[in-house]
Amino acid sequence: MNRMKANERDLWEKYIRGETPPDTAKRLDALLAENPEAFDAYLEVFASLEQELPIPENEQHFIQNVLGALPQEKQNIKGVHESDKQAKSWIYNPLFHYAIAASITVLLLTSGFFDLLSAEANKVISRPPDASMSKHVVDQASAWIDKFQSKR
Question: Transmembrane stretches, by residue range (predicted)?
Fold first, then answer.
């Protein structure tokens, strides 16, 4: 066992026994949550100290306290919270998309958008036979933009 390993083992032993200063304990708490290798080292030291650690007086009460301190939301195998899954499920439902599409269609029908669109299309199509189609489309688009800007 090298010198670094001995220091690391000593630090984890002190942490498990509750002998570390509060700032060091917080740093080790964060390390346990973020680093799987640190968690493995902690478990190894914890297992070696198991015989000398005190046993809870009321084991069932201890287990209930630990379970009560855990977050209440369940996670499925993929790590998605059940509440997130329920919130997203309606977004992926095809009926939701049909309802949105139908609402937009009704809005466009009642606003007269399609009537305006067909009138503008008829203006573009009904052009003099000697004029070029591209010039006529550009002129109509310019007229429409000018009309739109004048209404603002």
Answer: 95-114
CA distance 74 to 84: 10
Ordered by start, the domain boundaries in the chain are 1-54, 94-151
CA dihedral 95, 101, 105, 106 (to 10 degrees): 40
Q: In the structure encoding, which two tokens stand for residue 10, read together?
A: 């000593």
Q: What is d(CA 116, CA 104) in angstroms, rounded to the nearest whole number?
A: 16
Does residue 38 contact residue 31 with C-beta atoms inside 8 Å?
Answer: yes
> How far is Cα 16 from Cα 46, in angstroms, rounded to an integer?
7
Residues written for the chain: 152
Residue 81 backbone phi and psi in degrees, to 5: -65, 145
DSSP-assigned letter for residue 49: T
Secondary-structure percent of the chain, ordered helix, strand, coil, rounded to 5: 70, 0, 25
pTM (two decimals): 0.40
